[in-house]
Amino acid sequence: MKKKERLCLISFFQAFGLTLYCSVVGLLFWKGNAIFGKVPNYWGPLLFLVIFTTSALISGLITLGYPFILFWEKKQTVKALKLIVYTVGWLIGLALILMLLLFAFK
Question: Which residues are listed as membrane-spanning (predicted)?
Fold first, then answer.
């Protein structure tokens, strides 16, 4: 397998994994009242912020973990940057597909 094809495949899996993870977090936010009940005090916003910041960390690790290894340990800067660009491209593509599905089944 060529290096470019391998990077495209890795970036697809990163973008798809991030999309799946975001869908699970979105489901948690959507059904939060049904799962946790109505929380009219301090603990609701606190839980939201903890989930939100943890989600940002996990999203960063999914998207930037392997490119960081390529950059820092393997000294493959161009390959790391290409992987990030390919991942962003896949994320944009998946977001467009999700928007099309949303409008098609509305």
Answer: 7-30, 42-71, 83-105
Q: Which residue, among 6, 17, 5, has the nearest Cα to 62 in the 3D structure?
A: 17
Rg (C-alpha) for the chain, rounded Å, is 17
**Cβ 59 vs Cβ 21: under 8 Å:** yes
- Output the pLDDT for position 1: 67
Q: Predicted confidence band at 47 (pLDDT cuts at 50, 70, 90)?
A: confident
Tell me the per-residue pLDDT of 69-104, one tens digit each, with 9 for 90 and over.
999 999 999 999 999 999 999 999 999 999 999 999
Residues contacting residue 43 through CB under 8 Å, at least 6 positions apart: none
Across 4-87, where does the E strand assignment appear? none
Question: Cα(58)–Cα(82) distance, rounded to whole angstroms?
Answer: 21
Tokens of 45: 């916003």
What pLDDT score does 4 carry?
Answer: 75
Question: Given the structure tokens 């799946």, which residue do they identify?
Answer: 20
